[in-house]
Amino acid sequence: MNSFISETATIATDVKIGRFCIVEDGAILESGVSIEDYSMIGANTKIGKGTRIGTYTKVGESVVIGQSCSFTSFCEIRDNCQLGDRVIMGSRGTLSAGTVVEDDVVMKYAFVVTDTPDLSKNNEKSVGRLKKGSKFGASVVIMPAVTVGENSEIGACSQVRKDVPDNEVWFGMPAKFYRPTR
Known about the structure:
The chain is mainly beta. It has strands at residues 4-5, 10-11, 16-17, 22-23, 28-29, 34-35, 40-41, 46-47, 52-53, 58-59, 64-65, 70-71, 76-77, 82-83, 88-89, 94-95, 100-101, 106-107, 112-113, 129-130, 135-136, 141-142, 147-148, 153-154, 159-160, 168-172, 175-180. The strands form three sheets. Strands 3-6-9-12-15-18-21-24-26-27 form a ten-stranded mixed β-sheet, with no helix packed on it.
């Protein structure tokens, strides 16, 4: 198998771990989890039942991932993120440290939640929140401290610079309101 699995990790008996993976101290992998080749699971991270972690994906420390989630290849979920159930993330997606993603969120290819430091606030980093049922097209960038409302949709190649209310469709650079969701 050629993977490194910490002796202090808790792994259900039916978990599948690919080649050249790293599972660090205190990680918890629940039943039905699948970790594909060349992936890394950080210390004290919990991955819920039936979740799939794609090839070359890095999950940081102290991350909580819900049940039945799916992450394709080359994703990065940085430290202290909290993800709900049934979250889907396309390849090359990045969630900055501390990002909160609620249940049933779909993020397509090359999605990024940024955490650029605020120079006017002593380099304090603020992160985003993606509320339940929100959907994002490919190559969307969510700027720091932005919240995207429940069941809202963001079009491909958009940059979201301000909060999006519940049940709205936005797109563009910068993203602007288009219409209510249907």
